[in-house]
Design a protein that fits this description.
Oligomer: single chain
Distance between the termini: 68 Å
Structural class: mainly alpha
Number of helices: 12
Largest sheet: 2 strands, antiparallel
Strand content: under 5%
Number of strands: 2
Number of domains: 1
């Protein structure tokens, strides 16, 4: 199957170009607002290529029908939501049904038992957190490529190697149009939700195969930024379901003024460093409580320190600008 990969990559690029044409005709664009990190209208829904990659993997025998159907389900509902906003009920229903399909797949050959509620909650939670993190050019696709590359290096994931490569090729095709100063397209909910669900599926599958939950550190940065921001917003009394610009990556890209691609590369690069540290220095052959706890405490403290220092610096800068404006 390996000789087919260049043709599959070209197919994904062609599919995206065709989608851009259709999106322009039907007005599937993301218009900037006060909460956006972009300043011009951009085609939305380019992440449909991720759904296409899973369906293609299923057709070629590299993915199960449960996974393909689950991604088709959430991808279809999310695509419709990108075109015309939907009520919460059909979206939530699609997510729950798709997660149930993934549990059916994960349960083949493994006894999940009492772990089913926890896995269900983890998949739903991860999908939504990943979707929240899709806010600047390049961040979602580069982070996904790091995750997929890390999965590909784990021997226990040999059976999923073709699926991982299919997804990676679709990410590379999408990255060509997204990882740039002025993106040609955004992933949209269809992209971020479907990609999140596949990555979550691969993570749970890996933990089941190895019995080692430390592989969750492959998602460290996204997990930290999403969860800590959610907790802080909750304690500030904000509506956590409304859009916002208070993730660390948003402060870096918006208030600090760093280029989107620089922030995206930094997130992907740091996560790659973390993954490499665990794979080749700490070790993932067995779960170790002490290194896991110490590592988690260290990254949380470092994250909070960087976040607080950045916010103080931004507040000081804004105060200085206000002071100049009032005296000018």
């Amino acid at each position: 199957m390996y000789y087919q990969y260049p043709l599959i990559f070209v197919f994904f690029v062609g599919a995206l170009l065709l989608y851009f044409r259709l999106a322009s005709i039907f007005g599937i664009v993301d218009k900037p607002n006060e909460r956006s990190s972009h300043t011009r209208s951009t085609i939305r829904g380019g992440g449909i290529v991720f759904v296409l990659s899973v369906v293609l993997a299923w057709l070629l025998g590299a993915a199960s029908w449960q996974l393909a159907l689950a991604i088709l389900l959430v991808g279809g509902v999310s695509m419709w939501d990108d075109i015309r906003p939907l009520h919460q009920l059909p979206r939530i229903s699609a997510h729950f049904l798709a997660t149930a399909l993934l549990l059916l797949d994960l349960g083949n050959g493994a006894s999940l038992g009492l772990w089913v509620p926890l896995i269900f909650f983890m998949l739903i939670g991860w999908t939504n957190l990943f979707n929240f993190m899709d806010g600047i050019n390049g961040i979602t696709v580069l982070y996904a490529l790091v995750s997929l590359g890390s999965f590909a290096l784990v021997p226990e994931m040999e059976a999923d190697r073709h699926l991982i490569i299919f997804l990676s090729l679709s990410c590379l095709a999408f990255a060509w149009f997204n990882v740039r100063k002025k993106a040609w397209c955004f992933a949209g909910d269809v992209g971020s939700v479907s990609l999140a669900m596949v990555l979550g599926y691969l993570m749970i599958r890996l933990i089941i195969l190895t019995g080692n939950p430390a592989y969750l550190f492959f998602f460290t940065l996204y997990g930290l930024d999403a969860v800590i921001t959610l907790i802080l917003r909750f304690f500030r009394g904000e509506n956590i379901f409304l859009p916002h610009r208070s993730h660390l990556y948003q402060y870096l890209a918006n208030e600090a003024g760093l280029p989107h691609v620089v922030v995206a590369v930094a997130y992907a690069g740091l996560q790659l460093l973390i993954n490499g540290t665990w794979m080749y220095f700490i070790g993932l052959d067995t779960f170790r409580w002490l290194p896991s706890v110490l590592f988690m405490l260290a990254v949380i403290l470092a994250f909070l320190l960087i976040r607080n220092q950045l916010i103080k610096k931004i507040a000081k800068k804004n105060k200085k600008n206000i002071s100049k404006g009032s005296t000018g």
